[in-house]
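Hi, here's the filled form for the chain we discussed.

Project: internal
Contact: R.S.
Residues: 276
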Amino acid sequence: MIVNKGIFLALFVLPLCLFSQYTEKIGSGRPGQANGPFGVGKNIYQVQTGFRLSEVDSEYFIFKLNTEIIDNSTMFRIGLFERTELRAGIDYNIRDKFREENTVLQSQSRTSNREERVLNGVSNMSLGIRQNLTQQKKALPAIGIQATALLGGLNDYKTDVVAVQFRLLLQHKITKNLLLNTNLTTATETENLSYTFSLNYLITPSIRLVGEMYGVAYFNEVNLEKDVTNNFDFGIGYWISDKLQVDLFGGFGYNGSTFRSKFISTGLSYRINRRN
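And the returned structure, exactly as it came back:
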């Protein structure tokens, strides 16, 4: 099955509507993995940044891999029009420790080879656009689309291939305080389809809870993990003011005995209002 990426591109030429995206209180993609279908609103400038500590253990045939990363991820969002925003992101690995071990069977004995390296630097840069298409109408969700050029990083993280990622953004407001964000993501250079389901619950006017499940479905591609990896995270966001939010969240992933991961992250989101 091949996802038709041209459909996502075609949607960007739909006429712009005039209903407002602006909200009195800052809306952020943190905490969590999912994006909502709305922009920040015209003449709004917003930054979302956070630090993460993560560890991944995986096994592929004779290989055992362990990665420990401390990184910072920052996203800048600019409200170009009411329903259109420009996005620029940068990821920086403060410490990227990678260990690899492979075991070779030779004449009834096993030989293990180990390699370890520590890297740091800009691991990825991105430039994208988000377009909201519709608001929610009864059972029909609010819909948005997002296209992002993944430019790669610098030095050891440099890549010769620029991939373009396409994301369909859906949002269902279930009750006054509960909503579900659903994201479907694919990219050039791959035939994978990533999915994210994110429940957000507002427990007070200043505190919201987030719980997510996300993973990857593989199409026409050799998947070394053989099964879809299951990932979960849980977080809390706290509005200090209408323009400042802080957050804390963490999660884990697994796929039987071949893949295990865990992480914890904290950060903040801040916006500047130039609407007046």
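Let me know if anything looks off before we file it.
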